Amino acid sequence: MSQPDDVQAKVEALRAQLERWSHQYYVLDDPKVPDQDYDKALRELQELEAQYPELKDPSSPTQRVGAAPLGAFESVAHPMPMLSLDNAFSDEELSAFLQRVVDRLDVETLPELVAEPKLDGIAVSLIYRQGVLARAATRGDGTHGEDITLNVRTIGSVPLKLRGDKWPELVEIRGEIFMPRAGFEAFNEQARRDGEKPFVNPRNAAAGSLRQLDSRITARRPLAFCAYASGQHPEDDWPKSHWDVLQLFCSWGVPISRYAERLSSLEDCVDYYQRLGEQRDSLSFDIDGIVYKVNDFEAQRKLGFVARAPRWSIARKFPAQEAVTRVTGVEFQVGRTGAITPVARLEPVFVGGVTVSNATLHNMDEIGRLELHHGDTVVVRRAGDVIPQVVSVIEERRSAGATRIEAPNACPVCASGVERVAGEATLRCSGGLGCPAQLKAAIRHFASRRAMDIDGLGEKLIEQMVDAGLVRDVSDLFKLEPEALLKLDRVGQKSAAKLLRAIESSRKTTLPRFVFALGIREVGEATALALAKHFGSIEAIASADLDSLLEVPDVGPVVAEHLLAFFSSHANQQVLERLLGAGVVWPVIATTEDVSGPLEGQTWVVSGKLESQSREEAEETLRSLGARTAKSVSAKTSVLLAGPGAGSKLTKAQSLGIEIIDEQDFLARVAEASG
């Protein structure tokens, strides 16, 4: 249907008016019109779009809600990893972090910092294309999250279209989705009136709301958004500091924290922390600490990252909330490495937003420090607002005749002897994988997402497999038959087939994942990657001596001893042989020893867009030919591979007189070097 000339103008005017009112209400917290005026304008726009469907637009205020429920959330890859932060729990730890910043930058004074409240919500990534919201995803494991675009579109403070017109073709905005306290209380009050179960705290409420497959349910939840960082963005014409990025977001109509401040000293940081701490209970939203970031992006690049956290940012946590309750008993749990951990069973108590009935006691030394007795009244806190732990004992409330908590003489699961290594506080079961508890924990670790990634192999299923004798070590997973699985509780034809497909798929992995999956003490993902890159094969790692292991970055004397102990065990050697015999394979990995290629001694930087491959693939090719790759251009750079959009790296390379080649020259040089 063709529309009158004035209809499109009317539609555009209504959209602009509604977007302006939404911005005033949700972002500026300064509503200019009553709700009925907003509703009237929205209804008028809906009627016009229904009458003239050709005028519909995904970024229209009418399109925030209304999609059909999803069957499941799709997994999506983040353009750049969404990293976690290291924590500081005292002024001394914060001071040490700031000193490391100064030392690593080799400067005399602390660079400017930006401080912001650490919102207690759900981290999300928003991608805008041509200024229009194209995708929203949860943080997930940092590299992959869940696509929650339909749900996020319902949140009034998230712009469907950025304001103004000076936004790039593609930009990623990261922030926190949370539920303000007033909305949380109102929602829970309504839930109680309706006879429904209320949420325990605003964070759980936000998480539960974003996990709804029906976006119409999410739309009824009082959620809000606050941006705190950029992710993927153009290199050209981009602000040089975090503060300027926040101001840019604000100009686009994206909400940022009005409590953000620029600081220049430890004293400023401590003062900011104390001021926000005093306001914490009166804020309209929950926060669990302060985030400090080095403001200048070039300084951030120089500082870099360690493991999964940046060296240029840290979270200063507020003191955990505490409560008083009574210990009803102590249970000793056995972990994957045989460590026996005492856990206090408590009379349930509400602390830090959740009801706590268990708390860690860490080890017997901690029990000794507390002088814990059976039935003691204790102070419990949630460390970092997450892990409940016993802080102290209220001795004056102790019952007469109460006895001390004593260490077990035998493993509480398999009755094997208990060992205590000199210099360690931890008790360990000597039963190894003969201990069902250790075996179950080892299988859980082996099957976990960051290890062999066997989807569907959950804790309850593992319990049944071990108890039924189906799995005596991790290699038995690859021998499972459908008939045996079907005898287990709640396992049907479909779930058995799905699990067996997941196990089959896991046979193709990578060497770093496989090393991590073996569950060697103190060998995390970063150490597994370093070992794989250094040695290149599991055989080389298994046969390495102490001196060879100590040459590996991220491997110290303690880790080296654990590696030697693991690979010298006859039982572990047999399991390793069975795993390789079961067809577990991985691609050949280029090692740090393989530096004798034609590009040995050269340092390359890859920047801009490549047509034939990704930048990561180009870097991998260069490393396979002996070159070292770096993320920034410096006087040590040998060659810059510059595609379209190379930006400041190209400018810097030109100023330093560094050789610059395009993609065609790169492909020709690779072909020549490979020939």
Features of the shown structure:
OB fold (Dihydrolipoamide Acetyltransferase, E2P), D-amino Acid Aminotransferase, Chain A, domain 1, 675 residues, 6 domains, 37% helix, Helix Hairpins, 24 helices, 5-stranded mixed β-sheet, alpha+beta
Class by alpha and beta content: alpha+beta
CATH third-level topology of the largest domain: D-amino Acid Aminotransferase, Chain A, domain 1
| Uncertain runs | none
In the CATH hierarchy, what is the architecture of the largest domain at level 2? Answer: 2-Layer Sandwich
Terminal residue distance = 64 Å
Q: What top-tier CATH class of the largest domain fits best? A: Alpha Beta
Binding site for NAD(+): 35-39, 84-85, 116, 139, 176, 293, 317
Keywords: DNA damage, DNA repair, DNA replication, Ligase, Magnesium, Manganese, Metal-binding, NAD, Zinc
Organism: Congregibacter variabilis
InterPro entries: BRCT_dom (IPR001357), BRCT_dom_sf (IPR036420), DisA/LigA_HHH (IPR041663), DNA_ligase (IPR001679), DNA_ligase_AS (IPR018239), DNA_ligase_CS (IPR033136), DNAligase_adenylation (IPR013839), DNAligase_N (IPR013840)
Molecular structure report:
It is a single chain. The chain has 675 residues and is α+β, with helices and mostly antiparallel strands. The N and C termini lie far apart (64 Å). The chain has six domains: 5-63, Orthogonal Bundle (Helix Hairpins), CATH 1.10.287.610; 87-317, D-amino Acid Aminotransferase, Chain A, domain 1 (2-Layer Sandwich); 322-420, Beta Barrel (OB fold (Dihydrolipoamide Acetyltransferase, E2P)); 432-506, 5' to 3' exonuclease, C-terminal subdomain (DNA polymerase, domain 1); 511-581, Orthogonal Bundle (DNA polymerase, domain 1); 603-674, BRCT domain (Rossmann fold), CATH 3.40.50.10190. It catalyses: NAD(+) + (deoxyribonucleotide)n-3'-hydroxyl + 5'-phospho-(deoxyribonucleotide)m = (deoxyribonucleotide)n+m + AMP + beta-nicotinamide D-nucleotide.
